[in-house]
């Protein structure tokens, strides 16, 4: 078995409530803080700018024309915002889900969003394709809490973390956004619950395993090549960025399931240097 390389992380940003959805865009790290009702960007020195104010903001991405697309957690909504931070359109998709979560905009504008669907006492998961008019078409069903979303370098393979399935799934995406049946990209074992993810230029996937307090780099088939252990909190979501694409930003939130529902959390972002750069947002 190949040994796993340990990497150390250092502090980058403190003082947020519940960070999510990190993306490198326009030479800054963007991320959401839904419990604070804000979308932030951070420069390389950790300076923060409030870019948008939006309650429950979770996932984010940009359409080819620069429009910022935002999803929410604990509400089934998709929003558009302009360069000035003004929310210009809001779409309610509660007819098909009780909540959205992470969101991914592909370079050609295809936009995917997690859908959580209440089914009696259970929650089932699906992936929706968001149209330019805010309509959402379901393109994958039967998932056990889909979460992080990212395209491999071929831009046709969508990798999705299945939090309650303890694995990463892969779908082939058609030009119209339809998804194939899922295959298993990596089985992480029953104790790990993958959350946010990002992809590097050789197809490695960095993923936060939130409740085991670790960020892992995994490759197709499930081999873990690198690991970053955090000292406390949930390992929520990574993003690759920086001028050379080789700074790995790590969103960590110190909370519990009950605390998150009650709005109680303390968040921070760490950073580490890695060898393989990212493919871009996310």
Structure description:
With 282 residues, the chain is mainly beta. The chain has 1 helix and 25 strands. Strands 1-22-21-20-19 form a 5-stranded mixed beta sheet, with no helix packed on it. The model has no long low-confidence stretch (mean pLDDT 95).
Features:
56% strand, 6-blade_b-propeller_TolB-like, globular, hydrolase, four-stranded antiparallel sheet, metal-binding, hydrolase activity, 2% helix, single chain, 1 helix
Give me a quick take on this structure.
The chain has 282 residues and is mainly beta. The chain has 1 helix and 25 strands.
Write the layout of secondary structure elements.
Layout: E1 5-6, E2 10-16, E3 19-25, E4 28-33, E5 38-42, E6 48-53, E7 57-62, E8 68-72, E9 77-81, E10 87-92, E11 99-105, E12 111-119, E13 122-130, E14 136-143, E15 146-151, E16 157-162, E17 167-172, E18 183-187, E19 194-199, E20 205-209, E21 214-218, E22 224-229, E23 234-241, E24 247-254, H1 257-262, E25 266-273
Parallel strand pairs: 1-22
Antiparallel strand pairs: 2-25, 3-4, 4-5, 5-6, 7-8, 8-9, 9-10, 11-12, 12-13, 13-14, 15-16, 16-17, 17-18, 19-20, 20-21, 21-22, 23-24, 24-25
